[in-house]
User: Fold non-specific serine/threonine protein kinase from Cinnamomum micranthum f. kanehirae.
Amino acid sequence: MGCLQSKTSHVQSPEEESVQAEEKPDLGNGGPTENDLQVPAFKEYGLPELRKATNGFSPDCIVSESGEKAPNVVYRGKLESNRLVAVKRFSKQSWPDAQQFVAEAAGLGKVRHRRLVNLIGCCAEGDERLLVAEYMPNDTLSKHLFHWDKQPLPWEMRLRVAYYIAQALDHCHAENRKIYHDLNAYRVLFDEDVDPRLSSFGLMKNSRDGKSYSTNLAYTPPEFLRTGRIIPESVIYSYGTVLLDLLSGKHIPPSHALDLIRGKNILMFMDSSLEGQYSTEDATKLVDLASRCLQLEARDRPNTTFLLAAVTPLQKQNEVSSHVLMGLQKTTAVLPTVLSPLGKACARMDLTAVHDILLKTGYKDEEGAENELSFQEWTQQVQEMLNTKKFGDIAFRDKDFKTAIDWYSKLVALMSVPSATVFARRGLSYLMIGQPELALRDAMQAQVCLSEWPTAFYLQALALSKLGMETDAQDMLSDGATFEAKRQNNWRG
Assistant:
């Protein structure tokens, strides 16, 4: 079976390729709407593309916190465009009807919001069912709350999580997506700006029959335990359990939490790692909201409009960026916008294209280097250097990379002035034979020779990607693009 290309033709017009971002969203209510997001249009992907993006669904690419044990595993993937994505792979036969799966996914793909991890595609091919969403590089709420390394999640950030997730749920409610499956701390992820977002995966059932709850039964809505069904009010109950997580920094069964609340023992379940660094008044209001959300009878719980009205006044540091509150650096999960052909080839790890470009470029980036060698040609040592370089270049051209490495290594030992191009060529040769550590070393040596040479940065990015160090690779791509732009401006001047 193909990937059902025709079934989402109604999702967007052909010219609707993506929605461009204009400015960073404001932290309060005045930020851009979903129409201002830099989110690709929803599309259907072919299975070979997603298999390649996830390195054959490699266990090394799994980002589900329960690993391969999860009923539906989520992988980190890298598309040919260099965009990082999250790919959710459903268990076999979860959705026997491919058309139904694509229709559900396409409908969800229309829901866009800055507080959601937006869905950007799907695939239904053979018995594979896959969803593709934006990639969030800064872990889950569960990681920051329960498994933190350096510092506990700050109080103001906890309040921001409550606010942003309420915004996401309220938007979904307005879009008639009133059911969210299994809302918990694993479903809240942090983007490149370290802003919390609600995973769009929870808006879609885990199977055609809707059996979606996978958490401990002690935390599932009472009506689900009674009937096996969830209703919009069930989402409010689950939001209440997330509030308990934010308040306590640990999993507390709602029944136990309600006993503490009734006994006015609020401080008993406040997170001790906060060391009292929170407003007691605001904590009391959040506890009261959690209590309302956790009512046994669904009709007694508030709606999303009430949630927003309750948590909005608690936001006291709207002007402070999330990454500052968290003490983290901003990261990027997308390709820099301006890259040379070499930069793009390195970004997509196309070694053949990189080889072709380095061949065409030759040594022209090293001003006067070849002329200097030719001028000194009368000495025996320089003649030996020229011959060694020639044999290395021939081997490099003919893709005999092991031989090229041998000749270039001899040349490096002979030359009194190191050559950035020789290091670049030897570095690519190391990549071609599967030695990215040595390739990274040579790319760094090329940067030492020519400190603002874009090629050196691009090759470092390529080697870092091969080593799985994506954040550092993106930084190198950005630096290379910056120096590329600087050179272009100098030439225009």
In short: The two ends are 56 Å apart (CA to CA).
